[in-house]
Amino acid sequence: MRPQTLHSYLFRPLFHVGESLGIPRARLVETVGVDEEQLARPDVRVPYTALQRLWTLLVEVGGMEPLALRLAQAMEPAHVGLVGYVVVNSPDLGTSLQRYCRINGLLDPRTQWRVLQTAGGMRVELHLDPLDAWASKLRHPAEGLLVSLVSSARMLSGEDWPLKRVCFAHPRHAASGAVEDFLGIAAEYDASAYFVEGDAAGARLPIRHADIELGNLLHARAEAELAVLLTQEARSWRERVEEVLAAQPRTGDLVPADVASRLAVSERTLQRRLREEGVTFAGLEDAVRRDRAFQFLRDGLLPHFEIAFLLGFSDPSAFARAFRRWSGTTPGHWQQAQGAKDGAV
């Protein structure tokens, strides 16, 4: 299963771009579909569809402008949390870019970056997931990522990273000239890949004011967090919701908004993701309640009225009706049959 979310940090500079185009902040928030309070939290992740909606709006309003440059101007290491602190505390530009390309998965696990050593220096490649082909069609998003990378490299080293080659896999557009002026090199458009290539000396440029020991520690932490994230992203939303519900002492205590908050998404996003997987919150809650009921009765440690309470039923008769729906019999008969079966074994 491909990753479905990216970090809310990535929306901060895009909001700056939108506001610079005169788009009201309220409209930007509405387009993303996650309220501003949620977006401000460091643990919130947002569906990729929200990124597509926001970039579509930006291009509709300011597609004649060099949006890549506006994005580069809005990007600061502090905007991207742990990833930013790793890159600013690396010993040299080459190491900083390599680390960024590796741990960028914390921000956007679906977009891949690679660093390659070439005969003349270092190449940084951007690889979009096939699900995100819209980014090439809109031209500005992928261009903005590469231009922001170059801008950040210059800021980190305090020097003009000399570029040997820049390639974009989309066609030229109205703002291409301004982008090339910023890069200081004629870009190749309609290329077969997205990448920037600089000379070997640029990779050796030291990062200004870097705390190298701190950078090493933070990089190790980022790698550990990335491993956890990729494991989580591979799980379905159904599995995530079931895990949260099953962890509660009493089934039924959490409403969808509570579960959404624990999964760091909006309630609307959670409901949409479950619909996409063909399930509902109520159906998952019922399944968790059923499985717990069977387990409680199998263990034989609790009276039925206490099981009814732990499963969130108002009384034992409500529990009995639900259990008949699940199994076709009563809790007592099922428990007796289970005991007889175990005795036969």
UniProtKB/TrEMBL annotation:
SMART domains reported in the protein's UniProt record: HTH_ARAC
Keywords: DNA-binding, Transcription, Transcription regulation
Domain HTH araC/xylS-type: 239-337
Gene Ontology CC, one term: cytosol
InterPro entries documented for this protein: AraC-type_N, Homeodomain-like_sf, HTH_AraC
GO MF: DNA-binding transcription factor activity; transcription cis-regulatory region binding
Superkingdom to which the source organism belongs: Bacteria
Protein name: AraC family transcriptional regulator
